[in-house]
Amino acid sequence: MQLDMAQVAFPPGGRSLPLRLQGLAVATACGALLAAAWSLSPQAGGTGTHVQMGLPGCSFLARTGYPCPSCGLTTSVSAAAHGQWDLSLSAQPFGLVLFVAAVGGALLGAAQAVTGRAMFRRLKPSWRWVWTGGLAMFTGWGVKLAAGLADGSLPLR
To answer: What is the value of pTM for the model shown?
Structure first.
């Protein structure tokens, strides 16, 4: 039995084209996030990197002296993109999780775009992902608050 490589790469019925386009979309989105993170200079203080994109500073942090749940995410992802793992973890631990997910998404998306094989088959859309992500972000926020209170760096004055 001889294997026809055209049948492997492009199954009959064109079923792989939607999968390839889906993979390309995921790889492009994740790649854009990683490129943006790499183009920024992570701020050593753990927050404020997003200001380089023209976004305003955190009003919650300015008013209370405590970071909001998303404070430090941009810094964390940017630091991870630059290989600054300690800064990434201290800025917002969930940012490192997002960075790893973006790298995985870019690689799997590119593989799906090239091969036409479903790489995200087991990742079904579900509210469980939203709740898990939210819980992980708030856990990272709690870790950041606890560390800041323990070392005296919070509240900001």
So the answer is: 0.88
